[in-house]
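Retro notes, structure queue

What went well: the backlog is down to a handful. What didn't: a couple of records were mislabeled last round, so from now on we paste the full input next to the output in the thread. Example, using Fimbrial assembly protein from Rahnella laticis:
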Amino acid sequence: MKHIFKTTLLSALLLSAFATQAVQRNITVTAVVDPTVDMTLADGSALPDALTMEYNVVTGLQPISQQVKLWTNSTTANLNISLASAVNLASGTTQVPLTVKLDGKTLTTTATALTYATYFPNGNTTGSLAVPLEISQTTAGALKTAGTYTGTVGLVLAQATSN
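Corresponding output:
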């Protein structure tokens, strides 16, 4: 009798388990990883995904400046940095060219060399010296067209293949 009771109880539990409704949600997680180089804010946190340039009706768009650090796993290789493409803010058909500088060097789509010894005088374990990353309106001045201007600054950082 005891065996029949256990079998009945087990059967009831199994049936109730299968009768329970469940839902599964899958979330895809991605990460872009380059174990050779990176650029962060000076405190080591990630660069922001978005920045806002303030507008002054007399002088135009106000420059943005962030202190950044470069990171590398090499103890000797120089770094190269460039823009993925020319940088403009656009609102409709109106475009405003921007200038991007790293440590006072104007960046273009052609690679700019960053000498390892200059930027990593203390080695690579704590990142480079903190340097300013600046984004500014190429030709300062008031804009003629109202709107919400947007654009993307694409920075390409890579280890140099030769020093």
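Agreed that this is the format going forward. Reviewer comment attached to the example: The chain has a mean pLDDT of 89.
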